Amino acid sequence: MIKKIKVEDVRLGMYIHEIRGNWLEHPFWRKSFMLDNPKDLEKLIDCGLDEIWIDTRKGLDVAADQTVTEPQSNVKPAIDDEPQKIKKNSVSSVSIEEELESAKKIHSKAKTLVTGMFHEARMGNAFEIEEATVLVDEVNQSLQRNPNALLSLVRLKNADEYTYLHSVAVCMLMVALAKQLKLDDEQIKQAGVAGLLHDVGKMAIPNEVLNKAGKLTDEEFDVVRQHPQRGFEILKSCYQVSESALDVCLHHHERVDGKGYPDKLSGDALSLFARMGAVCDVYDAISSDRCYKKAWGPAESIHKMASWKNGHFDETVFHAFVRTIGIYPNGTLLKLKSGRLGVVIEQSKKNLTTPIVKIFFSTRANAHIPIEILDLSKGTDSIVNVEDPLKWQLDINHVQGI
Ligand SMILES: [Fe+2]
Ligand SMILES: [Fe+2]
Q: I want to staple 59 with a disulfide (CB 3.0 to 4.6 A). Which of 15, 48, 96, 387 is the partner?
């Protein structure tokens, strides 16, 4: 619902539909946008307007919880508090089993596409991104039908094809995160394309450095750290690449505390897209097997990132990301109070701490047991801890059916 409100009632988490008046009278070049930056809120209050228009379908309403106007550490992002609202908005119309088949096709198509584009980049050729925008639409639709299918596939990787599959994963995570942040369709598309292309600069890095099995020397590390700038130059030569994709490519290794690279940008100098790119990129990098390091599990990766987030990531974006993939993301192996092991296959409609698991192994009998799908929100069993599949020599992907 479009609603006119007094500027003094504006708060973070609202979706600004329109600011009426001369462009010169206020500092906002965007007509409609999610108000998620405290500095923007300050500017809005200071710019002397009396009233603005908000869209309560895309953001908070005036009557909702007033705590969002507290300092940034307590700021509730422009997202829902409970995962069930993701479902409500996204209308999960099909089961994960039904969606997995088309999700696998989209995943495979994305890998072929990014491999082709990156190959052109390595040859020094410009490439078209039109197919990438079509693909991102398909990603968006799959996530809309049932987000669990594609979000289970992002873990599928092998070290050899890491750069391509990581790009596919970051694309999908960016689209899911953009949806969680309630960005509009055009922004969702830009976020996905930006994710797909963010590491294209790695094509300008010699293969022996990019895929080196051992620790990089300082000189080699300096070469790898050139990839955002090199990617930016590659993308500038391509037709119709959005400003957002250029921005994410150049700034996905920046940190909010200014300790990132290449420009050591901090805080407000970093766009929302760059902050989103940083979170999606790090999550996928640390939760993937690399030629020099084994992956951390999905839940462990989220836990580690939560412990670094002060200064490393934007807090609002990180919280939205956790709501997107869960505290126990799909693919996490859990030990339950009953002594059984189950793999997370879906996020719960009710609570991030009670996902839906596929139970398949008994630690007491040390043997496989008949498969049972259990919604932990029902309370018949509960999580004891996260387990390492390697310890039990279990193939989690096989159990998940991916
Ligand atoms: Fe990168
Ligand atoms: Fe990356």
A: 15
**What number is the average pLDDT over the span 78-97?**
51
For ligand 1, the distance from its centroid to the CA atom of residue 198, given in whole angstroms, is 7
Q: Which ligand is nearest to the CA of 195?
A: 2
User: 229 C-alpha vs ligand 1 centroid, how far in Å?
Assistant: 10
> What ligand is nearest to the CA atom of residue 285?
2
Determine the angle formed by the axes of helices 96-122 and 185-197, rounding to 10 degrees.
60
The answer to whether the CB of 350 falls within 8 A of the CB of 377 is yes
Per-residue pLDDT at 191 exceeds 70:
yes
Superfamily name and number for 88-325:
Hypothetical protein af1432 (1.10.3210.10)
* Mean pLDDT along residues 281-306: 92
Ligand 1: distance of its center to the CA of 228 in Å? 6
Ligand minimally distant from the alpha carbon of residue 167: 2
Helix or strand holding residue 137 (H, E): helix 130-145
Ligand 2 centre to CA of 370 (Å) is 39
Interval between CA 197 and ligand 1 midpoint (Å): 10
Across 15-25, average pLDDT: 65
Q: What is the mean pLDDT of residues 119-137?
A: 94
**Which DSSP letter does residue 266 get?**
B
Question: From residue 231, how far is each of 75, 114, 305 by CA, in Å?
Answer: 34, 14, 26
pLDDT per position as a tens digit, 331-379: 999 999 999 999 999 998 778 999 999 999 999 999 999 999 999 999 9
Q: Quote the ligand 2 centre to 194 CA distance (angstroms).
A: 11
What residue segments make up the domains of the chain, in order of their start?
Answer: 2-70, 88-325, 333-400
Please, which residues have CB within 8 angstroms of residue 169's CB and are 6 or more apart in sequence?
154, 155, 157, 284, 288
Indicate which ligand has the atom closest to the C-alpha of 226. 1
